[in-house]
Amino acid sequence: MAKIAILGLGTVGGGVAEVLRHNGASISDKLGEPLELSKILVRHFRDNPYRSLMTDDFSQIEEDPEIQVVVETIGGMEAAYEYTRRALEAGKHVVTANKELVAEKGHELLELARRNHVSYLFEASVGGGIPILRPLVQCMAANEIEEVYGILNGTTNYILTRMNRSGASFAEALKEAREKGYAEADPTADVEGLDTCRKICILADLAFGRQILPAQVLTEGISALDLVDVKLAEANGWRVKLLGRCLRLPQGQRVAYVAPHLVREDSPIASVEDVFNAIVVRGNATGEVMFYGKGAGDLPTASAVVADIIDALRHEKAPSPIGWSAGTEGVVSAEELKQRWYVRTEADQTAAQALLGPLEPLTDKMGLQAFLTQPLPLERLYRAGGPLKMHSCLRVLT
Amino acid sequence: MAKIAILGLGTVGGGVAEVLRHNGASISDKLGEPLELSKILVRHFRDNPYRSLMTDDFSQIEEDPEIQVVVETIGGMEAAYEYTRRALEAGKHVVTANKELVAEKGHELLELARRNHVSYLFEASVGGGIPILRPLVQCMAANEIEEVYGILNGTTNYILTRMNRSGASFAEALKEAREKGYAEADPTADVEGLDTCRKICILADLAFGRQILPAQVLTEGISALDLVDVKLAEANGWRVKLLGRCLRLPQGQRVAYVAPHLVREDSPIASVEDVFNAIVVRGNATGEVMFYGKGAGDLPTASAVVADIIDALRHEKAPSPIGWSAGTEGVVSAEELKQRWYVRTEADQTAAQALLGPLEPLTDKMGLQAFLTQPLPLERLYRAGGPLKMHSCLRVLT
Fold first, then answer.
1. Is pLDDT of B317 > 90?
2. pTM beyond 0.90, yes or no
């Protein structure tokens, strides 16, 4: 009999309890022993089927020697950070979906887990129910990872899909997303790219084995995106997608950033629509591999949490060796990255070409001027921006 | 220091040696000890950089107590089967890409591995470098798997892509695939669906935890596919893809089959082109998850083999618990599965409707008659086939 506790009974925590109840028999089969949910930490007691398991005192979980795994689904930093540390120090495995905590404090918490011979696992923190972290670390272990990029936020992908398909503006599409329950009352973390930023940090940490912190990641969301550019891109065979992206540069430096990109309409990532997520990993042996599915939702996310619980218990004697080194040297700014740009401007092609070099013009029925540049660093674009009366510029994924 | 041996130095075996050499430092880092390729079993000695490691006597590997992992890349049944058994009995982990052997003898070899406290691992047998078996078994462990389907063969997908894009006939597209090195001199196993059949068996075994043997799998390839149907489907928003598919039916029976299908052009699997593979897994908590990448090639496949080597060595004391039970009860024929059908016929809609029930007509510029049916078992279609002068019928993925 393996006993676990859940901290917080919100969407994910409630989902974990439900998956354990619904698929309990087959989970116990795989584990070789029954799995029992024995305590749930809540702030306020509520009447529901789990009432008898609730406590508002974390020390009851911390001090219960029978609890082997603590599921942290509180979210945010303060309480989650404190309870995670105390659980690891008490010799319990901790499983979480808390991307903010992992992105900010992952290195420290993984070290703490290692010293206490337990696992700190967070498959659910990126891509919801999509298996991505374990495949990246284990299945692609024979590769040097060169790049990871992906659609990591379902809310923004829903908004972009609506803008592209129905011609809704950003504000209209956001309203729709809210009505469908895909966007929160305060959508800032989603639409400004913060959520994607945390996830790309975790992916970069694991892919490159060294830390990148959210504060080092140039982060641009989609709230300033103009429908005109989405439609113009579409008419020329491109889709606009918000990507988190990290690369290892030829000299070994690392870079991570979040920004809307033009992606080719016939690329697999372009066909990722609505609230779906997808992550592309490029390894030096495997080439590009893509993982696709629902990036959020109570049951998908909960199923990733439960898979981590099973993994922690199965390898009780050989805790997960994942981790990354501290220190953020070798991280360069995305501004230095040379990439192709989509540029909409009032200047004509000759004037633009004089400042930006060879351009690939895009066609437009409304008489707008737009081009794709050759690979350029952002700084070169900044310098040309004023003279060219640039209305918008977007990165191009090549 | 961990020592390994490779059996056979063909495409995959040679790729394994190359990945170990090229990414050796980072692999040793992940493993925590150096990994040494110490022997290679060959039939004929050749001059190449590995000449000093070659032997033509398996007992030199079998009896070397320092060799912990044997990589079987001979392929086929006889010798591969014998050496795998002997290696497992000698207490060595075995890692392979041999889908034929795993599909036919997987249960027996996994049992043998279990009794000898070693792992028998075969991530590379399905999807080449795409992580699929471990994600299916580990990351989706909290799910009841309801269905798995996929484009599991790159050669046939290349042929279908060419037929769709350039209007080449099957024979012309096959010729192109041969010229590009994508098809073997004898392409039977690919184009008749046998390769896909073996892979869907392995996926079904793992997904449902019970054996399905290749002989139980209705297997239809693409050699009889008419270009007319590919073009007609395309004009109506569908792509033709060769899928391996397995499902768990509501009463718990299992079914697996291989056949060309119409898939919606806006579905993620429709955008899988050329030699790429993709596998979709539907779990009751996660929903649909897709894994995409190169399904063949020396380095992608080798990198999956090497990841298995690392896994086997890392969990030396807790060998992989994967496996499935023997016995094939509960397997029903795909003929009993109700599905939608694409039908091209000389009969008009009224006559067809009288025999097949409600139909959705497809449009065609050449004046051909084609419909999509409601879900029907194959047997109902057989009965209607004669009277309707049916030219072709294809399954529809819904």
1. no
2. yes
Interhelix angle A154-166/A227-235, rounded to 10 degrees, is: 70
Burial of B45 (0-12, 13-18, 19+ CB in 10 A): exposed
Question: Using CB atoms, which residue from B129, B140, B268 is nearest to A303?
Answer: B140
User: Going by C-beta distance under 8 Å and a sequence separation of 6 or more, which residues neighbour residue B330?
Assistant: B210, B252, B253, B254
User: d(Cα A315, Cα B196) in Å, to the nearest integer?
Assistant: 33
The DSSP secondary structure of A35-101, one letter per residue, reads: EEEEEEE-SS---STTGGGEES-THHHHT-TTEEEEEE---SSHHHHHHHHHHHHTT-EEEE--HHH
Percent of chain A having pLDDT more than 70?
A: 100
A189: which residues sit within 8 A by CB, 6+ positions away?
A195
Are the C-beta atoms of residues A74 and A40 closer than 8 Å to each other? no
State how far residue A348 is from chain B, nearest Cα, in angstroms.
Answer: 36
ipTM of the complex: 0.94
Question: By three-state DSSP, how is residue B228 classified?
Answer: helix
The pLDDT of residue A91: 97
Residues A317 and B67: their CA atoms lie apart, in Å, by 24
- Both tokens assigned to B188: 């039977």
Whether B294 and A286 lie within 8 Å, measured CB to CB: yes
Tokens 């010293």: give the residue. Answer: A115
Is A338 in the B-facing interface, judged by CB distances under 8 Å?
no
Contact yes or no for B175/B155 (Cβ under 8 A): no
